[in-house]
Input
Amino acid sequence: MSKRDYYDVLGAKKGASADELKKAYRAKAKELHPDRNKDDPTAEAKFKEVNEAYEVLKDADKKAAYDRYGHAAFEGGMGGGPRPGGGMGGNPDFASAFSDVFDDLFGDFMGGRQGGGRQRAARGADLRYNLRVSLEDAFSGLAKTINVPTSVACGQCNGTGSEGGSEPTTCPTCSGMGKVRATQGFFTVERTCPTCSGLGQIIKNPCGKCHGAGRVQKERALSVNIPAGVETGTRIRLAGEGEAGMRGGPPGDLYIFIEVEPHKIFEREGTELHCRVPVSMTDAALGGDIEVPTIDGGRSRVKIPAGSQSGRQMRLRGKGMPALRGGVAGDMFIELAVETPVNLTARQKELLKEFDELSEDNNPESSSFFSSVKNFWDSMKG
Ligand SMILES: [Zn+2]
Ligand SMILES: [Zn+2]
Output
């Protein structure tokens, strides 16, 4: 399924200003919010699409990239995808993203919805990890341990943020609304509750270890299996391995973005591998067997037919890359590069001259062609 244009998704025109985009986004998000569209099964997907579009277009850098390259700007490779939301200790491989847009939304117009003192849990952020692998590893697949700096649920309070794991209580200032109203002259102003910072709940005895946040920063070692056949742009999702949620909320996901390093011999096209193989002039002329390296670390014997020209392609069935989602492995193609001999001995020169003389008798057509070319150049000189 092809992705819709982000401007279309938001119902904004191309090149819309930040303010216009924000307005368009709010209107769409209100219209499509799943809580208001309980009878429409497609509403949630649409809502996510709108959030994704705004996530990109609200960020000046991402917007510029999208305006230039379209969706391709975020599909694998360098610098694409979700970028930092901060808080990851300056590690450029990681980005905490996706969820801040929901904060915008709840903060702006969903503030009065809850109440009743329910646990205000929030899903943890998704993380991105860029992993470079060699073509050999992409061929065979690999098991790897990666260190993920992330925040995890605090063990001391079980993620609740309260000392001893006691439940947070409803904020007495805002009665759980997260907002307070104040009258200033003619106006009634609504602002974030100063007591609970908008959370609607307060923690009477904050946990000593996490200071009430319910999560702590930690580096986790994670073993991942990179399947055979990955290519640059492949994403591997590890559900639930992202940042811990706030106050007992579910964790986010971890996405591993694969980049396959260029190889010194092979060029890859999907599951096909291509390489150039040098062959001697005599092997090319007389035919012969050569050995070529293969990506599995072995060697394959290839028969060179007599009279092969430079550039001739030969196929080694099934010696290419495995298909990521199963199925037949690709083929390997070799392109012959016939080498002209250098540093000839006197004897070799003699033999080649003799060969040349014989060739003229042997190949009257080509010799007549060459002699006509020679005549032409001679006439130009004269
Ligand atoms: Zn409050
Ligand atoms: Zn704690």
